[in-house]
Amino acid sequence: MNGENPGREAPQPPAGKVSRRRVLGGVGAVVGAAAATVIPLATIGLPSTRATETPTAKRQWGMVIDLRLCDGCEKCTKACQKEHSLPEEHTWLKIVEVPREGGSYFFPKICQQCENPPCLKVCPTAATFKNPEGVILVEQDRCIGCRMCMAACPYEARYFNYEDPIIPAGALDNPMPEFPVPQKKGTVGKCVLCVHNADKGKLPFCVEACSMDALYIADYNSDVMVNGSGHTHQLSKYLYENDAFRYKEELNTSPRVWYIAGHGQDYFEY
Amino acid sequence: MTSIAISHPPYEDAALRPVVNKAGLIWWSIFLGLSAVIAVGLVAYGYQLREGLSVTGLSQRISWGFYISNLVFFIGISYGGAITSAILRLTNAPWRAPLVRLAEAMAVSALLVGAVFPIIDLGRPDHMYHLFIHGQVGSPVLWDVVAISTYLAASLLFIYLPLIPDIALCRDRLAKTSGALRRAMYRVLALGWHGSDEQKRVLNQGMTALAILIIPLAVSVHSVLAWLFGVTVRPGWNSTIFAPYFVIGAMYSGVATVILVLAAFRWAYKLEDYITLKHFRYLSYMMLVLALAYLYFMVSEYLTEGYKLHESTGALLELVLLGKLAPFFWLFVVGGILLPVLVVAVPMTRTIPLLALASLAVVLGMWLKRFLIVVPSLAESITPATKLTIYTPTWVEISITVAAAAAIPWMLMLFFRFFPIISVFEMEEAAEAEVHRREEILRGGN
Which of B54, B127, B145 sits opposite A162 (nearest CB)? Predict the structure, then answer.
């Protein structure tokens, strides 16, 4: 293989340095500003789209998953399903056993919180949106259930509510996209990275439940990652030193979920 | 200018026969039979409305199935009807007059059926209005909404314009025999047509403009449908040739449907004198060319993908070409392309029953092909999360699909109880043009 695998590059969550993303973002802003002055007429009368909002919040959430530690116990999946009242087939976080020579390893598959999310682009009603903290959410009241996003997601991380949802005791009448419990029949649901928990100073349910400490929640802005036991690392340094990679990097979806390989697997196996 | 001075030419009587005559036993039994099939479909949809999409065979992995296949299929055959008529008008093919009405009516009814499927497929059809209040121009789904509704409006106009003189004919000739309501309908819809030269000039201009307009419109509709799949990264869908591939497929299945409809209505309404073997042959030549074009696209798609054999594409190709779905795929290749091509290519088999049979095989085969485009790409997971998922449609999906197919002849039968089955106006124009042409030849000869 010629050239460098993009996954091998030092990951560069925004840390005050000039990164390629920043430069491209700057170019994009200039082009965007030029376009905005040229075609304001074309956009008048169009519904505003939260989809194009640039995340500006104090926190920019991401995730780190250490494949060296995952033992496939599925405590994360169960905690997620219990807390979000999800049916068994809605595996917002799914532990996949990937077979390989002489055994197998476990791969926690979750919404990658793409910075360039294919699911969001194809949504006809902007029911799927990116919140200011960079998390992709679904406003289920707005979703019409066309399932275009499910076809578009390269990570198959979206789930359709075919059946009536499980309604937990004390459920809200009109749940927020940040905590969509109960789910709405006929709409699509997905991992919300438990942003409602962050507001309360709590970790996501899956991170909390992981007894192997393999799951970390990360904040790009403060450059910090932390797991269920409270182990804390400097995000950029940890990703760099452990050769972190992103799932299907070649698709340019720019995920906010980073994986640390550990079983001799290379990046092309997923 | 000479005109053929017959007050009621025979084609006029033939065109009006189904309008004037009382419906016979055969008509009623077919009509009621189709109505029953449609009723079952409506009941099935009612059930689905109440219970949600859980009554379908769809799953988390295979989230699009029969309904989306039907959407592509029915809009496709509609497109074929419109484009056949439009091309024949623009090229001024003199033999088109007896068949354009049937082709256009088929186009509209297939479109009405096809346009319903995105709604049937929605998880929450009651929230469909969100498309209009929250519509996102970046979404292929919205492109579809815009394209299909524009195309629907254009194709309604496309059939209506040449119908105006014929409605006026009904208004004048059937004034004594029809009831008040029917008379009022003809009067309103005829828009005061009295056949002046000025009216004819304006009408012909409008028809030409629409014939030109309907082609890019229909192309855009089917391209947009293709991009529903083409904008994703799924193997099999992740293709740059999908738009023209779909357009050719639509024309192919559409011309076949036109042939099928012509054969059926020619037999049922005794139009043997007007719709002749010549029409079937000419249309089947179009079908032959389109079959080869479709084959070319298909080979081009599978060859380039199969040569590189990217991991996920490889699994998909194996599933479709060699695996579980291979019988369906090769059935399509042999029954839906090779045999029909042979039937058209060999002069001996170019008879109306065989051509109709070949067209039926094309229509069924193209439905199968659409299914093979939609479902396998979802069945073959693109993450290691699941192995191959199997999709088994339920009685709800099957009933709705069969009802949709039945709704096309049903609408046509109903339509031709009110409006002439042959475009009398265009038959007249063609006859006048023929007289004109002969005069020119005679004059040139002297």
Answer: B54
